[in-house]
Each structure stands twice: as C-alpha cells, then as structure tokens.
Amino acid sequence: MERITIDPITRLEGHGKIEIFLDKNGNVENAYLQIPELRGFEQFSIGRPAEEMPRITNRICGVCPEAHHMAATKALDALFDVEPSSAVKKLRELFYCSFYVTDHTVHFYALGGPDFVLGPDSDPAERNILGVIHKVGVDIGIQVIECRKRNHEVIKMLGGRGIHPVAGLPGGWSKSMTKDEQKIILEYAQQNVDFALFSLKLFDDVVLANQAYVDLIVSDAFTHETYYMGTVDEKNLINFYDGMIRVTGPDGKEFVQYPANDYTQHIAERVEPWSYLKFPYLKNIGWKGFVDGMDSGVYCATPLSRLNAADGMATPKAQEHFDRFYETLGSKKSDGRYLPIHHRLATHWARLIELLYAAERMQELAKDPEILDPNVRPIITNTPTEGVGSVEAPRGTLTHHYKTDENGILTDVNLIVGTTNNYAPIAMSIKKAAQGLIKNGKVTEGLLNTIEMAFRNYDPCMSCATHSLPGQMPLEIQIHDADGNLIDTLSQYID
Amino acid sequence: MKTIIIGLGNPILTDDGVGVKVAQLLEETIDMDAHPDLTITEASVGGLRLMETLLGYDRVVLIDAYYLNQQTNEPGKIHHLSLDDLRSVSPTQHSTSAHDTSLVTALDAADKMGYKVPRDFIIYAVEVENILEFSETPTPAVAKAIPVVTSEIIAELSLKTL
Question: Which residue has the higher pLDDT, B102 or B59?
C-alpha cells in the first residue's frame, strides 16, 4: 500500500492536469486532478536501518521536509517503544510550530491570498506575490520574507540543518536548547504573533469587508458537506504535533477518535478505473461515491477540517479568532461546540487562525523552563518490530508506518501523505466548479480560474520531490466526451 | 565576487538529483581555501525558499535536472541557460498549487522589496530520463554528464582544484 505522491504541476508536461469527463448530454460526470505518482519508495527504503528514515523521508519533499522528519521520528518512537521525555516533546513541537508559521505564511501570501487580495477575476499573471505587494505595498512583502527568514533560523537552530532537518532520534532529539537560543526564539515568537494578527487584520480588511467576497465564500459552488479529520489533545483542542485522530461528521458530531496506530481500522482506499489515484475514505462509513453527506465516507483533512474536528484552539488569541470565525460565518453551537463550516474557501481564513495558534504555541513552549533540560538523548533498549507515527502536516494528517526485523532493518514501509487524504474532496470541488460552467457541452469562460480557486484552498502539495527545470508548465484542463474522446483542452501557464 | 553554487534536486529520485551530485563532486574537487568567496551547497527547493538562499550573493550557479517533453528529450544533454531563458518558459508567472512561486517571480518580488538580488546567473541544466522513481543511482547517460558539467563549471569560473 505505497502512496508516495507527487510532484508536479510544475514538473512534467502532461501532468498536474485536470481531467473532466462529460456524460452523453455534455454535462460533467467526473472530474479530477491528475498528479504523477512517484514510484518505488518502499523498495528504496526496505533493507535500510529504520533510524535513517527521518533523514530519508525528509528528502521526499522539498516543501514540507519538516513534517516528514517529524512523522518519521515519531514512528521511530513507536517502533523502538520509547516514550520521549517531556522536554523532547516540547522541543519537537516548538520546531514544528515554527515550520507551520513559514508554511501557512507562504500559502496565504503567495498562493491562496492573491485570489482575494487581487480578486478572483484579476489577470492570472498578476495573481502571485508580486501582485500582492503591488496592490497592498512592499512592506507586506518584506514582512513575509522576514517572517520566513526568522523561522528558518529557528528551524536550523533546533533541527540542526536549514532545509532538511536531522535532529530526530528514536525517543529523542539530538540537540537541547541553550538559554541564548531560548531568548532569540521568544523574541521571534512574539514577532510571529504580531505578524499573524496583522495577517488576520488584512483578511478582515480585504476579504471580510467586501460583501462580494463573503458571498463567494459562502456560495454553494464552493461548499461540500463531508466528514472532517484533525489531531486533537485531551481537551479536544487542535494540536499539530501529537494527540488522537478525531473525525467529526457533517452534522458536527464526533464520529470517532482513535490513536494513529489504528489508522488501518478506520481508513480504506477507493480505486476508480479512470484514475490511478487512490481515494482514502472512512472504512466504517463506506464508499458511496464522490458525494456529500452523512452516508458518504469521504472526509477532508485541511486547516478548515482541523477547526471543524476540534472543539477549539489551545491558545487564547487563536481561540478568540476561532469563535469569531464560526460566529461570522453563521454557525450555531450544538452540544457546546460549533456546527461545522462547510464552505471550502473559508479554509484560507482557517489557515490564518492556525498561523496565530502556531505562533502563540511557540511562545508557550519556548517559555517553559523544562524545555532547557539537556537530557534529550535516551538510550534505546527495546527490540524494534513495528511503529506508526503521525502529525498534522499543513496539508492534512501525515502518517508513517514502518516494520522492521529484530535488528531494526526495514521490511515494510507505508506512508499516507497529507494531500492524499483530500483527493476525493478535491475531485468533488473540481467537479462542482466545472458543473457550474459546463452545460450541454458548452464551456463558459472563467472555467480555469474557478477550478483553480476550487482546488487551491486545499493547498495540495505536489512537490514531494523537487523542482526540475524549467519549473513552470501550463495547467491543463482536458475535457472528454462520454466515449472518452478528448474534445477540448484549456491551458494557461502557471509557476 | 561572492558566489554560490547550488546543486538542485532530490538526490534519492534517480536523475532528479543530478544537480546535487554535481555539487558534491565540485566540493570534493575544488580547493575551497583558494576561494574564500565561494559557497557550494545543495537544495531541493524552488521559488521563494531558493530565492532566500541566494540573497546577498553577487553570482549564482544553479545546476538542475531538465525535462521538457518526451518527444525531444535527450538524457545527458547539457544546457547552458540564463535567467531570461527561465523567464521565457513561463510567460505569465502565475503561481498555483505547488506551494511556491517560480524562482523568477520570487526574484522579481525580492528585487521590488529592495533586497540585494544576485545579477549574475549561470544555469546548467541536464536533460534527465527518470525522475519518478526512488533511487540513489542516476541513469547511465545522466551519470556520464556529472563529471562533464563539473569540469565546465570549474573552467567557466576559473576555479582552483585540489
């Protein structure tokens, strides 16, 4: 069950392609985003010592190496059956929250935000970070770069290396934190909080103050009622690093809560003849097709999903914004928790609330005197067998599962990467967007833009490798008739 | 002139890591003591994160894998490109879901924000065969190109070898 996914909308011609299949009347029957699958990771890993995995798996992806590093490290904890000390957990979580700040920042300012800041109907050539600084000022661009810079410094300080961290050990972390480092990180964390609040204010001013955007967010075209997945702490509040996997229903009620190592009891995969992607779904609900509702096993794992699956945020300012998010979008409370928001475009807002949480959580963790404990490298005594590690990657729950022989040599490896969780919801969102704009075989203008908006809010990561030159390829939409013949191709250049 | 040489790519994805392997060979070959202004590194990032790595340098040498399309692809063929060549590949510079923007867009943004963006770009691109399978070993034609690119960079930058 290997599922390494992806790269490239940016890489290979003919990939990163959206395919739309029409029925006999020329209306949309199926649609999906085609992502090339990287092959052979299992074979590559088998026969290697398991403790190499945090350093190998962080090579899978040039976008979120930190997430793979952390999931792999936690899988080693389980594999060698060693419980990390409280200081180790805090160091790891601090490192991980700093990564979240960089990752959510780039999505909002360079990818998702431009749709709103510049407007969904603006020239695609302008809808990037250049366009954003043109519209709202160079100072914002500098803040974005400075925010990323200071957090990359934290990642390097704690993770031992700039881009591909190396600090994760079974049950430990190779490096403790000094008082000087603590001082710097606290200062940076405060700047992160200010930056997150500034970003939320920008969202208020640019998006929420504009009724047309609010109407777009709550419009039916971008709404799906599905199950939601996220990791929660013992109080059912969001945690990125550790906790139970919680799934809540479209009705807002908890469906299940399980430890990560039970994932095979809860998640199954659907194979469709028209795609080589496998679509994960909730096993105990069952697969009913690409449809919304309580009876459909389709679930979603995104910032919006994490908010919906949790009872709240574990830090005070983020909690205020959490309440405001649900109140503003018209959610009512039921059994003490807000009913879920199903509007997919609200994911951009949810992402900024998570940004604030990550920043506040950094402050809490860095302040904790326990985090300076120098004993962070435990001696391993247990014989390894099998282990599952899971974290919330920015793009969804990330699971690493390893089996080894008694010498710790890998015999089996399975990964479920964040974006994979959302394959079915992404296909549904693309389909809905396409349905509105393709009627009886006639394609309306604006299809490309609308479809891009529909899938971009999921922040699908297709960079689980890296960039080959030339680095930019046209996004292609291919439309097939009921017999599978290609009848139309639309494309525009994208980065 | 403050120079950074960056091998781009994923070293465990067959040919994708050709740039990284050139950078590693350069590190083993060049007398770094003779070039205090030279940095050699590897990276498997693009866009903003790559741009951030380049700030403050005068000259940048990038080595990366290149795959345009199946019909014309010639594994091992070495291209010498400029930043304008990259610019021309993507006429609209529109970012999408790959969670980053293009290097060209990132550099333009940095320039606008007043950062010191390198002016001098030398880009070596090696056509590749297999970038979808995990392996540490490049395909034969690409493996052959590694020492060739290394020598070309040493000659172009007049670097002293060990």
Answer: B59
- For the domain covering A87-219+343-373, report its CATH number: 1.10.645.10
Contact A12 B64 (CB under 8 A): no
Residue B153, amino acid: I
Subunit contact B96:A467, Cβ cutoff 8 A: no
pLDDT tens by residue, A238-297: 999 999 999 999 999 999 999 999 999 999 989 887 766 788 999 999 999 999 999 999
Question: Is there a contact between A353 and A200 (Cβ–Cβ < 8 Å)?
Answer: yes
With a CB cutoff of 8 Å and minimum separation 6, the contacts of A357 are A238, A313, A314, A315, A318
From B48, B92, B133, residue closest to A492, measured CB to CB: B92
Q: How far apart are CA A116 and CA B98, in angstroms?
A: 18
Q: Are the beta carbons of B134 and A38 separated by less than 8 Å?
A: yes
B43 sits in the region (left: phi over 0; alpha: psi -120 to 50; else beta) called: beta
Residue of A nearest to B135 (CA): A44
> Which of A6, A410, A472 is the best substitution to test chain B (most B C-beta atoms within 10 A)?
A472
3-state secondary structure B26-79: HHHHECHHHCCCEEEEEECCCHHHHHHHHCCCCEEEEEEEECCCCCCCCCCCEE
Tell me which amino acid residue A379 is. I
pTM of the model: 0.90
Tell me what ipTM this predicted complex has: 0.84
Average pLDDT over residues A198-213: 92
Q: In this structure, how many other beta carbons lie within 10 angstroms of the beta carbon of residue A219?
A: 12
* Residue linked to tokens 């969202």: A203
Mutate to test the interface with B, among A469, A477, A494 (most CBs of B within 10 A): A469
**Would you call A423 helix, strand, or coil by DSSP?**
helix
- In CATH, the architecture of B3-156 is 3-Layer(aba) Sandwich (3.40)
| Most confident stretch, A25-29, A71-75, A212-216, B44-48 | A71-75
Residue type, A352: L
Of B49, B86, B112, the CB nearest to A133: B112
Residue A304: how many other CB atoms lie within 10 Å: 28
Number of A/B CB contacts below 8 angstroms equals 212
The domains of chain A are located at 17-36+422-494, 87-219+343-373
Nearest CB to B128; choose among A13, A141, A468: A468
Give CA–CA dist A62/A419, Å, rounded.
Answer: 14
Contact B132 A107 (CB under 8 A): no
List chain B residues with CB under 8 Å of A470: 66, 68, 86, 89-90
Answer yes or no: are the C-beta atoms of A459 and A3 closer than 8 Å.
no
Nearest CA in chain A to B126: A469
